[in-house]
Amino acid sequence: MSRPPAEPRERRPPAEPRQRLTPAEPRRPALLALGVQLLAAALALALHRGLLAAGVRLGLPWWALAQGLLAAGLSWRFRQSRWWWLMHALFVPCLLAASALRVAPGWWLLGLLLIALLSWNSFGERVPLYLTGRRTERALFEVLDALPKTLRLVDLGCGLAGTLRRLARRYPEGHFVGVETAPLTFALAWLRCLGAKNCVVRYRSLWDEPLAGYDAVYCFLSPAPMPRLWEKVQRELQPGALLISNTFEVPGEPAREIIELDDWRKSRLLVWIR
Ligand SMILES: C[S@@+](CC[C@H](N)C(=O)[O-])C[C@H]1O[C@@H](n2cnc3c(N)ncnc32)[C@H](O)[C@@H]1O
User: Fold this and answer.
1) DSSP state, residue 17
2) In the chain, what is the straight-line distance between the N-terminal and C-terminal CA atoms, in Å?
3) In the list 134, 178, 249, 259, which could disulfide-bond 155, CB 3.0-4.6 Å?
């Protein structure tokens, strides 16, 4: 099989850890976000009542704006990341604007269902769905080219299995496993690998997938699970096997190799040898 030419990119020795969870970052930011919205709604209501008592009547858009500003302020107070501030500020005003569109309620329910089926697991795991880019994939191919053609690789949280499928095509003698726990994502990934002999997708949590027997573990997750994943790798992965993480590092464990991809999301591949 012909191999595409490698893109120019920078390989460099490990740097200081970049993505850490700050001590202020909560383990369940979604719960904190809910609390912030409810508290802001209560404060906005109290403000509304106070103004009413003073003879000032605010329209619904003003109330929504006040609630959004209060929520953004609370988010700042609870030291959430900046992008949360904007989300909090816009949430209720957007709800109000959306309700003015007069879309049949069934469509909102359908949208909610789709989102839930694609990402309900990210509530606990803090790992949403986003996909490995082609440039990163080519760098991954270069790392894997050094392994035997019969390599066994697992993609922990394989998403829609696009990368897994392309890996299986590139290394026809290899064996590729994807695990995924978002129901709709899993179903699509499973269908996608249905015709491939050397590629299988399982509905299984990455924490339940035994890593012994794999030559390489690939993951594109988030900063949150990396410390626990590192412990699992230390327990289960055979010596000499690779852990390859797209972008997210293991705090305090410098990677053997870091490949900067120089793309819009500042991707990089971090490679550890067990
Ligand atoms: C950022 S996506 C990466 C998708 C794919 N590996 C890629 O690189 O294109 C992470 C995926 O991990 C899945 N995920 C999150 N927690 C998981 C878990 N505990 N077990 C299995 N999959 C999980 C998410 O549903 C999501 O599809």
Assistant:
1) -
2) 29
3) 178
| Ligand 1 geometric centre to CA of 198 (Å) | 20
Q: Are 270 and 15 in contact (CB under 8 A)?
A: no
Helices marked H in the chain = 29-53, 60-77, 82-99, 105-119, 122-125, 134-144, 162-170, 183-192, 226-236
Largest interatomic CA distance in the chain? 78
Structure tokens at 155: 């993609």
- Give the chain's domains with CATH numbers: 29-125 (no CATH), 128-273 (3.40.50.150)
CA-atom Rg of the chain in angstroms:
23
For each successive 10 residues of the chain (274 residues), what is the average pLDDT? 43 45 56 91 92 87 92 91 90 89 87 86 79 93 95 96 96 97 94 94 96 96 94 96 96 94 87 95
In terms of Cα–Cα distance, which of 179, 131, 183, 139 is closest to 158? 179
Residues with CB under 6 A from ligand 1: 121, 125, 127, 129-132, 155, 157-159, 163, 179-182, 185, 205-207, 220-221, 246
Tell me which residue has tokens 């069934």.
106
How is residue 14 written in tokens? 């490990």
Burial profile 206-238: b = 16 or more Cβ within 10 angstroms, e = fewer: beebebeebbbbbbbbbbbbbeebbebbeebbe
